[in-house]
Amino acid sequence: MTLDIYHTQATTSISLPFISSGVAAGFPSPADDYLDISMDLNKELIKTPPATFFARVKGLSMKDEGIMPNNILVVDKSVQPKTGDLAVCFIDGDFTLKRIRKQKDCLYLMPSNKDFEPIKVTEDNDFMVWGIVTYIIKKP
């Protein structure tokens, strides 16, 4: 899986209407006709603007988690990685999206697709965790 990487522009502000009462999965509420609250997605999705970037997913190595091509990832470089985190990693010249699995002797990058093998990270690899995925934006 490869990724396209984009810088964030969190200095802008776009307030959009927001249904503060939530969205009913049953019958609609008549009160929803009176939207008077707004939400700025930059403030909602980007907690540390200088350390946050976007990435567009390419490939199917995480499809069993519902992460598909063209999904957009919000990635925060300031979050300390831990086992189980969904991480954007740079390994041997390529970016990849995988779950981190730390073991006593090494680190594994775990796909969520049985057609892909885990990647064992050793000291021979040029490796860096670029950031931890904080949100995934998908089209319905």
Describe the structure.
The protein is mainly beta and 140 residues long. The protein folds into 2 domains: 94 residues, Umud Fragment, subunit A (Ribbon), CATH 2.10.109; 34 residues, no CATH class. The protein has 1 helix and 10 strands. The strands form 2 sheets. It has an 8-stranded antiparallel beta sheet, with no helix packed on it. Strands 2-3 form a two-stranded antiparallel sheet. A hairpin with a 4-residue loop joins β7 and β8. The longest helix is centred in the first third of the chain and has 5 residues. The mean pLDDT is 84.
Could you write a compact summary of the structure shown?
The protein has one helix spanning 41-45, and strands at 2-7, 15-18, 37-40, 52-58, 72-76, 86-91, 94-102, 107-110, 119-121, 127-137. It is mainly beta and 140 residues long. It folds into two domains: 2-6 and 49-137, Umud Fragment, subunit A (Ribbon); 11-44, no CATH class.
